[in-house]
Records
---
Amino acid sequence: MTVPGQSAELRIVYRQGTRHALAARITVRGLNVYIGFPDGTEEMLTSSYHETGQTHTKVAGGRKRVINEPKTPLQNFRGAERVWQAAPDPENLVWGYCLRTEKGSRKTLVVDLDTLDGLVPTIDIWMIERGGVSQLADVMQTCRSSRSFEFVDCMIIDWTQPWLLVVIRKPTAEVIESLRQYIADSGLPEGGRILGVVSGPGPPTGKMVKVWPEPEEITELPIPGEWKQQG
């Protein structure tokens, strides 16, 4: 079905004016899928789905790891599954990212924030079994017909097992107004802002283990080349 040495890279990049920032990344190495979301100068949230079916979620720049329940080995993955939905805050990203030329197994999806009416986009990341044309059509139909989100853009990696699909959407005006009304009615302090809108299952609930100790004091964090220059 697939080449053991398969590889792919997909980067989701925000653009604002002439500036760019990396919002999310997807990397395929063999039958292992890695997904990461940077936050400032660290990659605060990462998840991995391995060849064996074991999944992990790492937080705090990789300092802690949630050991999730094993799933179907990726070689045998069938159907379609939304593995992440996130809405990274542009204010927490490192701006100054340099776009790289697409070639081979690398793709970049650029999201122009200036066209989104000040809203933070929602990023859906799907895994779809290789060759699953009907599953892909069903996912796209679901994304386009939502009453809560408007479709913005999408991109697919379709040479791996599984396929990886990214769909960019933005919350509808009705959803934003409903959230603002809820905030006003709930008595929350004024001055806050809606960072983004996500739905679906909650965070992982497996056992959390410490991968490496928390630093006693962080005075200055280096800017990794992945975020600042290369991606």
---
Amino acid sequence: MAARDFTTPVPRVSEVPYSMLPAARNWERIALKWRNIAEQRRDHHLDLYKSGRWKHYYTDEEFLVEMRQAVAIAERWAKIAPRPGESVEPAPIEQPEAA
């Protein structure tokens, strides 16, 4: 995944014309389902790590790659499909003050 500025491609229901409401609701519902799947995958890998079961299926390097991918994908879906009430814009990065 390329590191670049990103805005959600899924329009908010409040941002679309009335005639497009059913389609916007459908897209939002589908995107949230995919986000939930990505978060479940991330949580599953975290559970594997905590329990130590990952050692039955992966080498150290393979599991590290899998875990990083699961976290990155979950974070990406959080940006693609923010839940109602979540901020779409990323928090500003604080710059250290020059002395």
---
Amino acid sequence: MSQTRMFLLSLLALAGLALAVQSAAAGTRYGHGPIIGYVTADSHYGNGSVKGAVRNTPVGRQVRLPSGDWTYCRTSCSETLRVQTVDIFGNGDSMVGYGTMQNECGVFGCLIWSWPH
């Protein structure tokens, strides 16, 4: 066998190995990692609870909604899941603040500021 033919066969075998490794890592395709855990979100208004998977991406964590869509976690993955699902109309049946941190509780929980009457 000539050296050129041996080189081409080796290159073809290396390409096949690279494709096999890529398909074996299908969960990390497009930079999305495998599922690293699950979070549960409980409604603040008695609308039940929902559970969603969490995964890492190069720019942050994502939580899977019951529809199968993935959305980036904001304050926390459980808060994002709660606001996007069970408490979506918790803002007085208004969509104001939907998809933002406006309806999410912070690190210290849901703090409500009010003046005594």
